[in-house]
Amino acid sequence: MYTNKTVKGTDTSFYPMGVNKKEAIIPCTQIANNYSSEQIVKNNEADATFFRNLEQHGIKLNQKQIEAVRSVEGPVITIAGAGSGKTSVLTSRVAYMMTEKQIHPGNIMLLTFTKKAAEEMKERISSLPGLSETAVRQLLAGTFHSIFLRVLRNQGINEKILSNEKYKQIIIKKILKELGLSASYEPETIISMIGYFKNHMILPNDLPNKTPIDKEIRDIYSMYEQFKKKEHLIDFDDILVIMYELLTTNMKLKSLIQNKIKYVLIDEFQVRP
């Protein structure tokens, strides 16, 4: 994690940790049967037409997938391997909410982690039966960062976005040089570590200050934050942190969002920012 330095007594609980080697229970599941919605959903069921339309579009859901699509109220999580149809379940669930439960698209938020994935998700929803382009456009769909940034801009937070990774490395290199630590740390490692701190809501003053390494990391992190503040910059991690702070301190905004957004669906949740 750090180069050329190891100091006994450093409190590593604040720093990114590798996977420990303790024994763990590995989750497993039984092999599913081959039945799809064609056999499971009977024609006399109230939502049969919805599933027949999906089947005509090549979407044939299994028992658990059907249960997820029909489970509109309350929390639902779909855990399955890559390519097993999680995104199809999510998009079908959105269509089900809008067509079968008459939920207004403006009350639904769809979140994912890349712009490409967000666009593909909207395209897949648009292709589903019973949904108009107008209705799909009313869905609040995008990445965590794009949607949260929209809220931040609406709240008057107009700092420029520090999105260039090369520029971030230049900033860190400059800070390391000022501190005489150029030979001790790689900029990429520091950037990754700061991202870890921010995603765990750890501020510079929250870090330990017991050992030389503790102090160095704390100083680097603090100087990076000071530089951004001076230059009126925020990075992608800041977008998430500031949004969290707004929701925990601005009750009017929180209430406004809660009254507007009734359903939140997240694709690829395991990728978490």
UniProtKB/TrEMBL annotation:
CDD domains given in the database record: DEXQc_UvrD
Key words of the record: ATP-binding, DNA-binding, Helicase, Hydrolase, Nucleotide-binding, Plasmid
Positions of ATP binding: A80, G81, A82, G83, S84, G85, K86, T87
Alphabetized GO MF terms: 3'-5' DNA helicase activity; ATP binding; DNA binding; hydrolase activity
UniProt record, GO biological process: recombinational repair
GO cellular component annotations of the record: cytosol; DNA helicase complex
Domain of life per record: Bacteria
InterPro entries xref list: DExx_box_DNA_helicase_dom_sf, DNA_helicase_UvrD/REP, P-loop_NTPase, UvrD-like_ATP-bd
Location of the UvrD-like helicase ATP-binding domain: 59-273
Name under which the protein is recorded: UvrD-like helicase ATP-binding domain-containing protein
Native source species: Bacillus cereus 03BB108
